[in-house]
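Exam prep: given the inputs below (a chain plus protoporphyrin IX containing FE), describe the expected output before reading on.
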Amino acid sequence: MVARGDAERPAPTTIAPVPAALRVAHGVSALTIIAIFLALHISNHLMFLAGPTTYDAVMKVFRHVYRANALQPALVALLFFQITTGIHFVWRYTRAPSDRFQTFQIASGVYLAIFVLGHMNSVFVFARTYLGIDTGWGFATGAPAGLVQDAWNIRLVPHYALGVFFALSHIAAGARVVLLNNGVRKLIADRVMISGALVAALVAAMIILGMCGLRVQFV
Ligand code: HEM
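Solution:
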């Protein structure tokens, strides 16, 4: 696509605005996903640092929420809604130049759309339906070989690290836009997003180190 682009023709500086209702719906849907699933899922993954027994015990408790008959189909529907509306935004916004913050928001959204689709395929279709296995600690960490010492499993290290980093920093990018639309000064809104991205990097690093074998113990 880049090679076929016409470098002589400048990109339009104005584009048809994305309907405000759709942007609000994307945000409300994101908040619902965080409330019924993502906050639990990320906290669960921080338990990699505590080892398999704690990780699986916490997961079993959290499953009562996101695997509940009423919530699981709603969660999947919301994720598909998030992906389709997100791709629509990307389609619109990439027609015009964007600043660094918006470019980050667009690029992280594109990664997430691909990540979430691939991840749901591996959890729902490959593991649960095709292999018929439980998607607990062993599935996540590529047991018994582990993530690092297996030539195929190691692909999951950047895949998961970036998944967590972009999920959390994309939320921070969305918060920045909400703040700007509510009259908060740009400097403050930018700092909120940068701080959010730093926290996202820290959380992603802790999770991936836990997945790769780091254990934290209180004695
Ligand atoms: C370190 C990163 C991640 C790892 C290791 C991981 C691993 C897993 C595992 C093991 C499950 C099965 C859970 C269960 O059986 O109860 C699961 C489910 C799922 N994950 Fe992740 N995940 C990661 C990040 C993410 C992120 C960032 C998202 C979304 C943005 C996500 C979305 C989902 C969804 C939608 C499901 C299906 C939930 C359900 O059973 O209803 N995951 N993941």
